[in-house]
């Protein structure tokens, strides 16, 4: 009888595992940026109340990495990815790596490329050189994996594809991986699921978010109202096809990012939706 009860409890978790999806998505600290800026422990209480134990931080919110790690440990939360600026990657590499290690992160993430106006081939070529160089340093000296997070402007047309294709194809897979922000792929007119199918194992993480219905796509500016982030499954993006492609690609981390002013209300609903799809 005990074995039967144990099996019944494990079945929901097994269904997730079989799909290659975690039972619970992670969270990006930017979702609760205004709360973290005021009270880190209280905000971690909110995160944990939602059942989230995997986080990506791109801000220390006035704390040291060591002090933040102490708070994370106390809440049973793990920081798997640490986001930094392009400039800090280049000019503060050792500090970035030390902070990432102190947080317990496996990944160092950058979410932008210096450019003026539309991204150019020269901009992309410089980024490739930078990512390969510092990705190698992070890997060989610190055991960290560098990941690049798209922000929309990378999808400028180039040859038979885009400059985003150029970035993926010309960076060294040994030292450079990627995090797909599905909204910042969809808004410029791309299909996030197709990108996951095309580049597969290059992706280590996703930013899960949905774009408000009625917002026009084809915008390569890398800008849209933060309140265009809506509850997963209520917007324009085909979330089930994204999750299916991500699982097949072997993506390990699925971070919800809700930049809207309604994040406190929307995040629990997005988590429910994620779980409903993952269970199917």
Q: Treating each run of at least 4 consecutive H or I residues as one helix, how many helices?
A: 12
Strand content: 15-25%
Major sheet strand order: 1-2-3-4-5-8-9-12
Poorly predicted regions are 4-18
The CATH homologous superfamily is termed Divalent-metal-dependent TIM barrel enzymes
Q: What is the CATH third-level topology name?
A: TIM Barrel
Q: Give the end-to-end Cα distance, rounded to a whole number of Å.
A: 27 Å
What does the radius of gyration come to? 19 Å
Largest sheet: 8 strands, parallel, barrel
Structural class: alpha/beta
Overall outline? globular
Number of strands: 12
> How many domains make up the 3D coordinates?
1
CATH class: Alpha Beta
Q: Into which percent range does the helicity of residues fall? A: 40-55%
The H-and-E topology, N to C, reads as HEHHEHEHHEHEEEHEHHEEEHEH
**Mean pLDDT rating:** 94
The CATH architecture assignment turns out to be Alpha-Beta Barrel
Provide a descriptive summary of the structure in words.
By secondary structure, the protein is an alpha/beta fold. The chain has a single domain (23-278), classed as Divalent-metal-dependent TIM barrel enzymes (TIM Barrel, Alpha-Beta Barrel), CATH 3.20.20. It contains twelve helices and twelve strands. The protein has helices spanning 2-19, 33-36, 40-49, 65-75, 86-91, 93-103, 121-142, 163-170, 183-186, 192-199, 239-249, 263-278, and strands spanning 26-28, 54-57, 78-84, 107-110, 145-149, 157-158, 161-162, 176-181, 203-208, 210-211, 229-230, 253-256. The strands form three sheets. The protein has an eight-stranded parallel barrel with strand order 1-2-3-4-5-8-9-12, surrounded by six helices. This is Sugar phosphate isomerase/epimerase. Residues 1-17 form the signal peptide. It holds the Pfam family AP_endonuc_2. GO terms for molecular function: isomerase activity.
């Amino acid at each position: 009888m005990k074995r039967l009860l144990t099996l019944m409890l494990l079945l929901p978790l097994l269904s997730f595992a079989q799909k290659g999806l975690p039972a619970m998505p992670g969270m990006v600290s930017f979702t609760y940026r205004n709360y973290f800026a005021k009270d880190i422990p209280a905000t971690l209480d909110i995160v944990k109340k939602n059942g989230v134990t995997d986080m990506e931080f791109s801000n220390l919110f006035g704390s040291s990495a060591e002090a933040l790690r102490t708070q994370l440990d106390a809440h049973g939360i793990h920081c798997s990815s640490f986001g930094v600026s392009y400039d800090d990657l280049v000019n503060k590499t050792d500090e970035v790596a030390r902070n990432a290690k102190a947080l317990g992160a496996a990944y160092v993430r950058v979410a932008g490329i210096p450019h003026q106006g539309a991204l150019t081939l020269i901009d992309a070529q410089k980024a490739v050189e930078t990512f390969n160089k510092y990705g190698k340093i992070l890997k060989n000296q610190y055991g960290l994996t560098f990941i690049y997070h798209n922000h929309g402007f990378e999808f400028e047309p180039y040859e038979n594809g885009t400059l985003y294709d150029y970035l993926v194809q010309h960076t060294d897979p040994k030292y450079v991986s990627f995090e797909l922000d599905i909204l910042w792929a969809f808004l410029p007119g791309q299909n996030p699921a197709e990108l996951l199918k095309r580049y597969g194992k290059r992706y280590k993480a996703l930013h899960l978010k949905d774009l408000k219905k009625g917002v026009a796509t084809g915008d390569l500016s890398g800008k849209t109202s933060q309140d265009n982030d809506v509850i997963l499954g209520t917007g324009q993006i085909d979330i089930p096809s994204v999750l299916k492609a991500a699982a097949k690609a072997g993506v390990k981390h699925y971070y919800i990012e809700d930049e809207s002013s309604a994040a406190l209300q929307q995040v629990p609903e997005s988590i429910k939706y994620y779980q409903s799809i993952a269970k199917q």
